Amino acid sequence: MRLVLSEEQIRDGVADLSRQITGDYRGRPLTVLGALTGSLVFLSDLIRQLDFRLQVGLIRARSYRGRSILPGALTIQDAEMPEIAGRDVLLLDDIFDTGRTLAGLVETLRELRPASLKTAVLLLKQGRSEVPMVPDYYCFEIPDVFVVGYGLDYNDEYRHLPHVAALDKDEL
Ligand code: 5GP
Ligand code: MG
Questions:
Q1: I want to staple 93 with a disulfide (CB 3.0 to 4.6 A). Which of 27, 35, 51, 79 is the partner?
Q2: Which residues line ligand 1 (CB under 6 A)?
Q3: How far apart are CA 100 and CA 72, in angstroms?
Q4: Tell me, what's the pLDDT at 114?
Q5: Is 24 a catalytic residue?
Q6: What is the pLDDT of residues 119-141, one digit of tens each?
Q7: Looking at the predicted structure, is the pLDDT value of residue 154 above 60?
Q8: C-alpha of residue 94 to centroid of ligand 2, in Å
Q9: What is the widest separation between alpha-carbon atoms in the chain?
Q10: Angle at 139 between CA 133 and CA 141, to 5 degrees
């Protein structure tokens, strides 16, 4: 494994993001929704730095199994979340790769009529997007490598690593 982001770099990146979010919402009550399972570590670190009224929820995306996975062909499988109608909502995920997960979740959440809906990811992979959206916030851009740690998994392992590391092909 090769180190991509150290624990300290991540801490600084998440702190910067929390300051940006705090400035942008100016104390307006916010609902932060974490996409399971990859966003768990990011979510727990970020929300502890947001010192204003906040509701927290979790959602799980599920792809439709079909001939092809179309952008937006995604639904919410489970939701442990408060009512979001009329609320400012910030959706968190671990990584924006093709963007299909986030774009699909945004499409579904919009149907619940939040007052506003923004997205934040820890990592943005360069040159991979297949959707006409970009996350409103991201902490780090990374090259097109497969990474694990800080919530990101390979077969549900490595999520607990405090840093982000790249797994080489022979390790996959
Ligand atoms: P997207 O829908 O943007 O293509 O992919 C988003 C999801 O794919 C992420 O939530 C994550 O679960 C997974 N994913 C994409 N790239 C990586 C990666 O480099 N490492 C890991 N562990 N998961 C990834
Ligand atoms: Mg994921």
A1: 35
A2: 38, 93-101, 146-148, 152-154
A3: 7
A4: 98
A5: no
A6: 999 999 999 999 999 999 999 99
A7: yes
A8: 7
A9: 48
A10: 70
Q: Cβ contacts of residue 170 below 8 Å, gap of 6+?
A: none
> Which residue ranges form the domains of the chain, and what is each CATH number?
2-171 (3.40.50.2020)
The whole model's pTM is what? 0.94
Model confidence over 66-112: pLDDT tens digits?
544 555 567 788 788 899 999 999 999 999 999 999 999 999 999 99
Minimal-distance CA residue to ligand 1 atom 23 = 152
Residue 73, burial from CB neighbour count under 10 angstroms (0-12, 13-18, 19+): middle
Residue type, 18: S
What is the 162 CA–ligand 2 centroid distance (Å)? 17
Give the closest residue (by CA) to ligand 1 atom 8.
Answer: 97
The DSSP code sequence of 53-112 is -EEEEEEEEEE--SSS--TT-EEEEEEE----TTSEEEEEEEEESSSHHHHHHHHHHHTT
From ligand 2's centre to the CA of 87, what distance in Å?
A: 24
Q: What distance in Å separates the CA atoms of residue 164 and residue 3, rounded to the nearest whole number?
A: 6
Buried b (16+ CB within 10 A) or exposed e, 51-72: eeeeebbbbebeeeeeeeeeee
In this model, does residue 172 exceed pLDDT 80? Answer: no
